[in-house]
Design brief:
The chain has 367 residues and is an alpha/beta fold. The protein folds into two domains: 146 residues, 3-Layer(aba) Sandwich (Rossmann fold); 169 residues, Dihydrodipicolinate Reductase, domain 2 (2-Layer Sandwich), CATH 3.30.360.10. 34% of the residues lie in helices and 24% in strands. The protein is built from twelve helices and 15 strands. The chain has a nine-stranded mixed β-sheet with strand order 14-13-12-11-7-10-9-8-15, with helices on one face. A hairpin with a 3-residue loop joins strand 11 and strand 12. Helix 4 packs parallel to helix 5 and helix 9 crosses helix 11. It is globular. InterPro entries: Gfo/Idh/MocA_oxidrdct_glycsds, GFO_IDH_MocA-like_dom, NAD(P)-bd_dom_sf. This is Oxidoreductase. Keywords: Oxidoreductase. It comes from Paenibacillus albidus. GO terms for molecular function: oxidoreductase activity.
Length: 367
């Protein structure tokens, strides 16, 4: 379900439960807002308002969610006591500030990834969350809207592959360069590739391993093939080590070829003490254009399952319940802040791979 087109995010009323839970939408800068709102409404939440200063974005949004009323301002939404949650896909550099404002008005906040582009903003929001008692939740779509990832977690929880030792995450994306907004190419606005796309991989590592004490070992970023956009990073990779020695290697990039049937051949390989799992999230290349394939081998043999349509997306119902009952079943606040901290550390300390960088490394190694 990752990165589906706008028209696919139609509300399936037949699958909706009924809750007395109202939310609003502010800022439509990224298409992920359609997945966020589709998940909430399908889980039974009521969308009351939408606001964005761009009327064209609002018009497109209303084609999929005609039940929303168009607010005249952000303040009209924030002053509405019926609204319990604000969902938002603002420009990444603006997400934290909007979140602070939402939380100050006694509402929970649900933002697209990445939640922050600066460590100082993360620290401010941490303090504000304690002060207000409100939630700052994040849409890590490559997990919460991926039945294959959820299925892999079930296998891990059942002990099918023993203790997780290593996760390898591959997150290629299609650039679609001509359709990207200006902010996409400004480093200060999007935060860098490890901060942005890397947040998805770090979220999944913590999810698969239940790790919290994780350190960044090494990270790289590069602009290999887009000199016309000097602030764009089209490649990044990273190694992290967990508290029990479990490790993560991930690679993210903007090099999905034109001939691939989907936006990216996202995969995860999970090695355990008693087996391994491979997740093919978006396609089984050359064989199936359908998403959500999972392969695993353990002491009992070799296994394959196509899980699309079999699990659903429980995160959204759990998020609604968490907001109503102040629980933390969908996602803990500490998890959100830990993922954010790690992706910002990885980004801040990354080597910038250029011919000069490689020459310096060769000199340092004595070659």
């Amino acid at each position: 379900m990752n990165h589906r087109a706008e028209e696919e995010f139609k509300v399936n009323e037949a699958n909706s439960d009924v809750y007395n839970f109202t939310f609003a939408v502010i800022a439509l800068d990224h298409i992920h807002i359609y997945g966020m709102c589709g998940g909430l409404t399908e889980a039974g939440a009521t969308m009351k308002w939408v606001y964005d200063p761009d009327p064209h974005k609002v018009s497109s949004f209303l084609k999929n969610f005609p039940q929303a009323k168009v607010a005249r301002s952000i303040e009209e939404i924030l002053e509405d006591s019926e609204v319990k949650l604000v969902a938002s896909a603002a420009v990444p550099s603006e997400r934290w500030k909007l979140g602070m404002k939402v939380m100050s008005h006694g509402k929970d906040y649900f933002t697209d990834k990445t939640p922050f582009v600066q460590l100082s903003h993360l620290e401010e929001v941490k303090r504000h969350a304690v002060l207000t008692g409100r939630k700052y939740m994040v849409y890590f779509n490559e997990r919460v809207h991926s039945e294959s990832v959820l299925s892999a977690k079930q296998l891990i929880s059942e002990g099918q592959i023993g203790r997780v030792l290593q996760v390898i995450g591959l997150g290629p994306h299609r650039l679609n360069i001509n359709s990207r907004p200006d902010w996409f190419f400004r480093r200060a606005d999007y935060g860098g590739i490890l901060c942005d796309l890397g947040s998805q991989q770090i979220d999944q590592f913590l999810y698969f391993t239940d790790s919290q004490n994780v350190a960044v070992s090494h990270s790289n970023v590069a602009n290999y093939n887009h000199p016309a956009y000097p602030e764009l990073e089209d490649f990044g990779d990273c190694i992290m080590i967990g508290e029990r020695g479990e490790c993560l290697y991930f690679r993210v990039d903007w090099f999905t070829p034109a001939g691939l049937s989907t936006w990216g051949d996202g995969r995860s390989m999970i090695m355990g003490t008693d087996g391994f799992i491979e997740i093919r999230k978006n396609c089984d290349i050359g064989r199936s254009g359908q998403s959500d394939h999972i392969f695993w081998s353990n002491r009992s043999g070799e296994h394959y399952k196509h899980v699309k349509g079999q699990i659903g997306f429980p995160f959204f119902k759990e998020l609604i319940m968490d907001c109503l009952w102040r629980t933390e079943n969908a996602m803990t606040q500490s998890h959100v802040f830990r993922v954010a901290d790690l992706c910002l550390q990885a980004q801040a300390n990354a080597n910038h791979l250029t011919p000069d960088t490689l020459s310096l490394l060769a000199v340092d190694s004595g070659s």
